[in-house]
Amino acid sequence: MKGRLLLLVFFVCLCSGNLFGQQLLDATDRQPVPFAQLIGEKGVTIGVTDVNGQFPDSIRCKEITIQHLAYQSKTLRVSDLVAAVPIYISPVPYELGEVTVASHQVDYIHLTTYFRSYQLNDSCLKYYRDGYADYFIRLKNKKVKRIVPQMRTLVNRHLVENDRQRANQVVDKYITIPYMEERTLIERIKENGGTYQGDSLMNPLFVDHIQVGVVKMDTAKKVFRVEYDALATRKKKSGTLFGYTTRLENYFQTEVYLFREGYQSYMDLLNRKDYRKLFYKHKDDLREQLIEVTDELYVLSHEYLTSDEAKSRMAQLKSAAEKAYPVGNGVVPSLPSCLEETLETEMAEER
Prior knowledge:
Elements: H1 2-15, E1 16-18, E2 24-26, E3 37-39, E4 45-48, E5 58-60, E6 63-68, E7 71-77, E8 87-89, E9 108-121, E10 124-138, E11 144-156, H2 157-163, H3 185-191, E12 202-207, E13 210-218, E14 223-229, E15 238-241, E16 244-258, E17 269-282, E18 289-305, H4 307-318, H5 337-345, E19 347-349
Parallel strand pairs: 2-8
Antiparallel strand pairs: 1-5, 3-4, 3-6, 6-7, 9-10, 9-18, 10-11, 11-19, 12-13, 13-14, 14-16, 15-16, 16-17, 17-18
């Protein structure tokens, strides 16, 4: 027994790294990178940098992959890290084109996008959904029409089969098809009292005098980015249904836009990402399940349309041919390798 205990202590020490004072910085401007996910070998998020780019004090794994919507992923060994020495990651080199507004009256913004939403239960990929979605945002009243011409939903056959063994099983599926609100994220934050200085590269974002995120305005690269902790000013709540309790622990949102002086609209949206961490438990279970959900959306093209042109585009989408699902094509980054492998070996189309 004593030998086993010593072995366990040795294993924990081997897999833990002291990251006290470690900070994640942008490799080009040396600014902090908040809300970056730190992903372990199995694909589970084992930590998130705070609003100042600071790492958690310790991480229990040998290797981590740093992921952020606006940066290139970086994998490193925890044992190679030196306390209080910053880690640098490189921003995604967006290819930004100028938007030309036609001389005739325009009525809609049309976005063609690729989305993916995936869920891990206790570090195991359980649900995965991706596809193409077109959004038509009417400029007059901001109403949004969404058309999803192509989509697939994959499930982990083994995990879902285990669920069926329990009577009255509540489906724990949190993956989504993204929906566009009538206003962008930064507009909604401002409506709820959010403020930021707006006169520097990195601007703290406040609601009710509490820092809830960061607004980055890079005029050189023409990128505007919003990082938002949606739970920073809210009391964390639990919900119970049929003996199941759900507790939302983290909810981080990021949106990246083409920079325009004074105002960012959906015409400027480049991509967005939501990360949710929650705990899920049945009253008869001995412990909670950790559930992580990542929702990503990438804008492939955008244009202004008249009403007639919008109607024509909508009709064309109903008969559009299927497209190949993008894999690491520069606009859409690849998934962590462990999740890619699970998609190929353990996932099947939902029936």
